[in-house]
Amino acid sequence: KGHQLLCDTFAALCKAGVAKDWELWIAGTGELHEAVMNSPSGRHERIRHLGFVQAPDMPDVMAQCGVFVLPSTFEPWGVVVHEHAAAGFPLVLSDAVGAGERFL
After folding, report:
1. The model's pTM
2. Domain 3-97 - what CATH class?
């Protein structure tokens, strides 16, 4: 769902010195999780793979983050977009996220 591109881009931004103080946290699992996690950029020292986060624990995770990124290559709606928007997060969404049109 675009996570490999996100990891590649993040690693490139770190290498270029743009993301000096950034960390990338990836929550969730899925069919491509292992491939992304084991890729060179997915193993970057400033990328944290959180795995599945239980709903009661998500507010604590969100409280430590500054922006929400959904790089999906196909996401007709994406409830997580609404959850993070309601929590006041800046949103970075791919143009394939249908819910993103509501936040323009």
Report:
1. 0.86
2. alpha beta
